[in-house]
Amino acid sequence: MGWWGVGLALMLPWLAGALWVRSGWRDDPAGIWPMALGYGYLLGMLAVTLLLRLQEALGLPPSFAGPAVVMAILTILGAWRLWRRVALDRLRLQDAGTFGVELSWQRIVFVLLLVWLGWRFATLAQELWLRPLFPWDAWTTWTVQPRVWAELRQWVPFVDPIRWLGDASGSLYTIDAVNYPITVPLLALWPTLAFGVWNDTAANLPWLGAALALGLGFYGQTRSWGATPLAALIFTWLLLSLPILDTHVALAGYADLWLAAFYSLAVIAFFQWLRTGDRRQAGLALLLALVCPSIKLEGMVWVLMFIPALAVAWLRGKALWALVGIVAVLGLVWILSGGVAFVAPGLGEIQLRPDLIQLPWLGRFALHYRSSWEPLFTNGFVLVNWHLLWYLALAAWVVAVPRIRVEGWRRIMALFIGCCLLMLFVLFFLTDAQRWAEQYTSINRVFMHFVPALLFWMMAVWVKPVDYDRAEPTSANTCR
After folding, report:
1. Is 158 helix (H, G, I), strand (E, B) or coil?
2. CA–CA separation, 205 and 122 (whole Å)
3. How far is 282 from 456, CA to CA, in rounded Å?
4. I need a surface site. Which of 150, 182, 335, 416 has the fewest CB within 10 A?
5. How is the beta sheet containing 348-353 ordered, strand by strand?
6. Is residue 315 left, alpha or beta, with left meaning phi > 0 and alpha meaning psi from -120 to 50?
7. How confident is the model at residue 354 (pLDDT cuts 50, 70, 90)?
8. C-alpha distances out from residue 425 to 292, 300, 418, 433, 437, Å
9. What is the overall mean pLDDT for the chain?
10. Nearest one of 283, 255, 259 to 269, comparing CA atoms
């Protein structure tokens, strides 16, 4: 089908996902369409990977037609559901007329920033169009499988190197990261199936969509929080202008941009639920968070960061303090007993000791303090990977601390961000991952996974949220 097919492969899931997300809101809150487009792209592309997995499970060869028909049906059903639930006169881009005449200077700045972002995405698209597959991890991990599947038009198995060496039939393939999830390889495979043959540009284009979806979802949620169109676009510009994020678009092929999009938009929806109790936001947060381990194995660690915040959101008074006491006692027993070690059926050996952590697929990490302050400071405050983001983050903490006791949701949001930073401290200061910091490699990629959520929290520090209109049934808001 060529490039028309690639366009259809990218737009059809996007439209289906956006329509289904938008139809979840009968009303027309600020930023709903950008939010629907952002979350919809991720959910639509996720649906495609599930359909491709279904093809494999049924023994069918990888093809474009089957999943495309299903996505077309979902698009029609989504449009019908939206038409039934939302009055036609409400299907409008609400932000289009929110600037008054007296605020014309804001309109000018808004347009200039929008043009700036548009030009930035145009140059990134040019990089993807002209540059062949380039990143190192893409060669060795993420795009080997989709290229083999696209070239052979069959789901050939990838096995560990030992089994591959012992195979005399030549029908098995191998990569070093054979146990990694295949969601990202399937995302690269999908547009090449529509193109007809393997094409580097077609395989890389979903990464441009992921960055655009992250920006749209971030902008929509910021508007929903209460930011003006200009303020929301300024924070979105701060996000999309980060050099490290743009690098992961221009050098498409890594899984980190996808993990950043899924995880951060899940966290942002979770923050919205903390403030409003909106079950629709909770559903988006849950769905996107559950996908994270299927993007990268490290996604499971990021998902665990929700647990402390959920515990504080659901428990109060004596129950919360009892849980804290139980955790403290268990931690003390764990330290005094020297930890635990056991074999989990189907997973392998698990060791959780004060001096060692070994988990299936994640690896083995010796625990002791290492000083990583110099590379951390250099990467965050000196080099250009983050512009001035971390200086702004320090200022946000100074402003946030006095306000933490005002609303419960502010405390829980700060707790969540603190848990993420604590996890990163453990990773880079107490484990062998210190070498990732010393070598200036994964340190920036790992931080990028939650930086969009961090930036949203920084926005929430400065922007006063709007009063929530409970137009539809919501869960009990326990965080006010």
Report:
1. strand
2. 12
3. 17
4. 335
5. 340-344, 348-353, 356-359, 363-366
6. beta
7. confident
8. 21, 17, 10, 10, 11
9. 87
10. 283
